[in-house]
Amino acid sequence: MADVTDEAALDDARKRFDAIWWAGTLIWMGLALAAGYFDILPEVGDSNEWWPWIFIGVAPWSIALSLYRLVSENAPNPSAWDWTWTGVFTAVALGAFVDISGALVGAIALVITGVVILARARPSVR
Fold first, then answer.
1. Is pLDDT above 80 for 40?
2. What secondary structure does DSSP assign to the chain, as a single string?
3. N or C end: fewer C-beta atoms under 10 angstroms in the chain?
4. pLDDT in tens, 60-71
C-alpha cells in the first residue's frame, strides 16, 4: 500500500479499500444466491432462506477488513461509518442464530447508527 500521509494518497487508499470491500461483498452475495438457488445452504435458525447467509458472510468480511486497516501502518484507519456498518451487519448476522425478531435487530442497528452520529458530532479536542 502507498504511504497514507498526504490527503491524495489517503483518499486513494480509502477508495481502494472501499472497492475491495464491495468486490468481496458482491462475490459473497452471488455465491449465497447461487447456493440458495441450488438449495444447498444449511438452515440457519428458524429460517430456510438464503438472505441470512449474506450477512453471515459480510459481517466477518467487514470485521476483518476494518481490523486490518486498524493495525496496518500503511492503510487508512477505518472510519466511524466503517465500524457502524460492521456493527449493523454483525447484529443482523447474529440475529440469524438467536431467536430474536427482525424488529429487535433493526432497533439495535438504529441505536448503533445513532451512537456513531452522536460520537462524530461531538467537538474534537485538540
1. yes
2. -----SHHHHHHHHHHHHHHHHHHHHHHHHHHHHHHHTT-SPPBTTB--SHHHHHHHHHHHHHHHHHHHHH-SSSPPPPHHHHHHHHHHHHHHHHHHTT--HHHHHHHHHHHHHHHHHHHHSPPP-
3. C
4. 999 999 999 989
